[in-house]
Design goal:
With 178 residues, the protein is of the alpha/beta class. 40% of the residues are buried. The chain has a seven-stranded mixed beta sheet, sandwiched between helices. The chain is built from seven helices and seven strands, in the order H-H-E-H-E-H-E-H-E-H-E-H-E-E. It is globular, with a radius of gyration of 15 Å. 30% of the residues lie in helices and 26% in strands. The longest helix is centred in the middle third of the chain and has 11 residues. Strand 6 and strand 7 form a beta hairpin. It has a single domain, classed as Rossmann fold, CATH 3.40.50.
Length: 178
């Protein structure tokens, strides 16, 4: 269904994050309604989280893509359009911190990893899509040095005809119970 439609949706046409299917299964089974999510990179994952959690804040660099999403988001979602690199990376600091989930799935990922740390709640987790790409090594290594463990969930996912990796970075006593 997703390959033919060229958008990440389930068999009923509902949004899916553009993560690996194993990651969608693990993350989806651990979401609770009270959670707060921050995403670098907005998209179908924003819509997917919005149907499951209390608040979603997404930062998107592409104005055209942001405009296409804006009308689809419910009131408990904030979509920030931020093309400026420094402002994009630091956007998370403007939203009060204590996020249960921070998603790194946009631009400047290694810089975003550093900015995520003070904004992550005590039991929070970081979702890093495409973590198998070499340009992500520095940011992932930083998080591991800061005490995070890494669960790599490799496999196929929506739209693509190849496998990749979505990782969950977590500490002890995390909100996902892993």
């Amino acid at each position: 269904m997703t390959f033919m439609e060229r958008r990440p949706v389930d068999a009923g046409g509902l949004p899916l994050p553009w993560y690996t299917y194993p990651a969608i299964d693990v993350i989806g089974s651990r979401l609770i309604a009270e959670m707060r999510v921050f995403e670098w990179g907005a998209g179908y994952s924003t819509l997917w989280y919005a149907a499951r959690v209390r608040e979603v804040v997404a930062c998107e660099h592409n104005s055209e893509w942001a405009r296409s999403l804006r009308g689809k988001l419910p009131g408990h979602c904030t979509l920030v359009e931020q093309p400026n690199r420094a402002e994009y990376v630091s956007e998370i600091a403007r939203h009060g911190g204590n996020f249960d989930i921070i998603v790194i799935d946009g631009l400047h990922r290694n810089e975003c990893a550093e900015m995520a740390l003070p904004a992550l709640g005590e039991g929070g987790v970081i979702i890093w899509d495409n973590s198998d790409l070499s340009e992500s090594e520095a940011g992932l290594a930083l998080l591991v040095r800061r005490g995070f463990k890494r669960l790599d969930l490799a496999g196929m996912g929506p739209i693509n005809v190849y496998a990749w990796t979505t990782s969950i970075l977590y500490r002890e006593r995390n909100c996902f119970g892993i």
